[in-house]
Amino acid sequence: MSNSGESIVITEVGPRDGLQNEQQVIPAETKIELIDRLSQAGFPEIEVSAFVRPDVVPQLSDAASVLGGIQRRPGGVYSALVPNERGLIRAIEAGVQKVSVFTAASETFAAKNTNATIAETIERFRPVVQIAAAEGLMVRAYVSCVVACPYEGAVDPGDVVSVIEQLQALGAMEIDLGDTIGAAEPSDIERLLACVGEIVPIDELVLHLHDTRGGAVSCARRALELGARRFDAAVGGLGGCPFAPGAPGNLASETLLSLCDSMGFCTGVDAAAVADIGQWIRGVVGRCTTTPDQK
Ligand code: HMG
Ligand code: MG
Predict the structure, then answer these.
(1) At the topology level of CATH, where does 9-294 sit?
(2) 116/217 Cα distance (integer angstroms)
(3) How do residues 166-186 score in pLDDT, each as one tens digit?
(4) pTM
(5) Which ligand ends up closest to the CA of 143?
(6) C-alpha R_g of the chain
(7) Residue 219 appears among annotated catalytic residues
């Protein structure tokens, strides 16, 4: 127990990243039940949905109903993805507290995911960040493909740094590094954090790991050893990106909670409750996944 008491902040992204990639559209009532149970389990932040084009991601076209139906735990943060000003306006009307813009360190992925160049995504975010700040909303900025792109292969950490600098110049308050296709090895995380850590304190970065054959947990462990203290994870290991072929699920919340516990960190999240939720939601989405391993 070398890290006794130190806190790790976990954003539960299952309701958004987990459900955006399912073939079937999960009913809004089920999403609301999922989010309410995750709130009760103690997650400090839940990424509830996305105000993207409903025809492009129909799985999340009920974002406003879901936000309107959940029970907000006092002190909890309920956030949503927004790709542009149109999405931000919808998100504000639905009552979000925090919005997440998203771009990439790879041009091809940015084009496939957002129908824009990286530079164009940054321009779209300019009014988003300004209006969000005026409304008192927090702003997270995702950078996808920080290790590899499904179309272009390996990504240089220098390209990640360049995108982050542009996001910081806009006023993004939180930078989230997405290993979108779960390509990272612990050595990639070391290289990435060494570079990005020059411009953002490592304990302020968020790591968003997708999982390939259990590799995400080794990456999370290395990141924790190097000082990372904020992570995204999805209950039941759900997740993936419709625009990243082969993108596996997110690092399972159950696995991350177990890892944090084994390293002596505290999360404030009820791991037993999360295990129950994971079992239930995997049943709902009809997945035949095994229970995430408790590494
Ligand atoms: P576009 O077609 O280039 O946008 O879409 P546009 O500005 O040309 O608008 C075209 C039409 O869409 C217009 O309607 C707009 O009003 C409408 P029309 O005037 O023709 O009737 N429109 C919208 N409607 C509702 N809400 C909106 C919105 N925006 C435009 N927000 C856009 C560009 C990015 C919006 C679109 O491609 C899109 O929504 N893509 C979805 C991308 C997505 O959700 N990807 C998955 C999430 S990212 C991810 O999973 C990675 C992450 O997990 C991190 C990681 O793992 O690395 C975060
Ligand atoms: Mg993701």
Answers:
(1) TIM Barrel (3.20.20)
(2) 32
(3) 999 999 999 999 999 999 999
(4) 0.95
(5) 1
(6) 17
(7) no
